[in-house]
Every structure is written in C-alpha cells, then in structure tokens.
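User: Please predict the structure of the protein below. I'd like the answer in structure-token form so I can feed it into my own downstream comparison script.

Assistant: Understood. Taking the following sequence of 344 residues as input:
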Amino acid sequence: MMPSVDEVLVIGRDEVRRLLPMERCIDVMADVLADLARGSAVNPLRTAIGVSDGQGFLVMMPGGLGTSSGSAASGGSAASGAFGAKVLSVFPGNRAAGLESHQGLVVLFESEHGRPTTILDASEITAVRTAAVSGFATRALAVPGATDLAIIGSGTQARTHLEAMRAVRGITHVRAWSPTRHRLAAFAEEARAQTGLRVEVAASAREAVDGAQIVCTVSSATEPVLEGAWLSAGTHVNAVGSSVPTAREVDGEAVRRARVFVDRRESAMHESGDLLAAIREGMIDESHLGAELGEVLIGAAEGRRAPDEVTLFESLGLAVEDLAAAAFVAAAAREQDAGTAVTL
C-alpha cells in the first residue's frame, strides 16, 4: 500500500540491504556524480561536532538531487529535485563492541511542497553507496582485465568493496591485510565461502599490495598504511577510509605517483587527510588533482591515459550519493510494498 500524503515511509536496514543491489547502486552513483559535474545537484560541505566527551562526532550532510539521479533512482521523475540530509554519529570505538562505527538516518523530502517522504537507515546506505562509488571509479579508471585485488581493512567496507570490485572487474585473486588479525581471518573466511575466490591473508600491507592491479584501502587508520613505493605500474587505488583532515591512509609518495581523482574538489580540499598531508609535505599542490569522477563520465576530463599510469580515487563520501541511493531504495520500497508508513 502506498503511504498517504500525510505519511512518511520508514525503511530499516534489512530492507535497505535487500532493495539496494550493488550493480544498480553503481549506476545510480554514476548518474548523481554526473549531475554534480553538470551543476544540477547540490552538495554543501558536511558539518561535524564532537560529542560524548570526544568519543564521537555528530555529522550532518545536506544535499539536493539533480534530474538524472532522480530518474535513475525512481524510473521516472518522482525523485527529481528531491532533497534531504544524512544525519549520523561516528563512534570509532564501536568496533571494539561489535557495533558499526557509523549510525544514523537519511531523510528525504519531496520538491513540490517540501514534505518529508522517507526515513531510512543510514548504515546500510553508507555501506553500499561508498563501495558503489569506488566501483564506478574502478570501472572508469582501472586497467581493463584487472583481476588481482588487494584490500587493506577487514570491516564492513572490506566486504562491500569486494562485492563492488567483482561487479566491475573479473576478480580472481584477493589478498587482504588488517592489523586486527581475528577480524581479518573472519573476513577472509567469509569472502571465500561467499565468492569461491582465492582470498589470502597477507602478513603485511606491503605483501597484500605487491603486484595488485586494484588496491582498496578501507581501514580506520590515522597514519599511512599504503606507501607509494609498493605500487606497481598501472595500479588503481581506491582510498576510502580517511575522510577527515587529521587522518590518512596513503603516504605522500602514493599521492605524488598517481593521477588523483575525487568525488568533489571542494570536499577533497577541505576534508581529505591524504591529500592535505601530501600538500603540507610539499609532495603535490592543488593542481595535482586530475578531475572529479563526474567530469570523466560526462567527457569534461580525461580518465586513465596509459596502461602503466597509476590512478588514485580519493573517496570522501557525499550527501548526494546518500540521497540518490535513498531515493532508489524508496522507489523500490513503494513498488514492492516494503517499509512501514507512519504518521509523524
């Protein structure tokens, strides 16, 4: 049953997971990043405040969708121009308690009268769309035929990034490393069981990266876990775990060696610890940023230029990505009579 005009659809984590397949989410992310490059989607910088005596942060991410992302999300124009926000808490210490570090909600509003239409669990939206953007970056930038993958990290994003990489390249071999050895072993075992792939537990990050054609850093590190000297010619890197100025996953040499692509320049220059540290160290300047992913998609910038070029996608995560994924899920939920309609 479709919710009435006075009702809001609430969609929980399990339903988000079921209604947001990785392959479709990759295409939805491509559409919304193209809209951002064209200027039809709106994405202000996120804001964050420290909470709980410095144990965590409350993060607010508002944005507005363009026309293409609305069409991809809804199969029509229902989501076109929709706007909203993701509001979440980030508590890194949650991992020790077996909880997700990111918890929160995505709220969608319709554009005709400004009514709230949908409230969704943010954790699973974030888990899937983050990897889906890396999937799009890999599809656009990694060498064709890449089969060898390295994953640095063993949490939720390790799981979803393996799924995303398999969606865009014929991955046959995976090496994974994480300092949390029991979680690393559990991730590798689960990955083998679910995919049938050869998934090796590496003794070090360097061993994991050696010879890899695609590298995904999805850790909670605050200091570099990937060095540029380890990268083979032609490697594509998705640097995902560092999204605040004070943390970094890759060293300055990795940034210097690579052509760097971002989801959004303004966000990268304010929030990317990987890039800001490399600039402070004198390894690069702002001109080193090659392009936004959406610019590559719409033909406004070049992607990979040569088979031996090292490419790096610096992922910050954008509100419009969350909103486009949420709009897709909301449309699917209405079509399948999923979710719970409530009157606020």
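That's the full token string. Residues 122-141 form the longest helix (20 residues).
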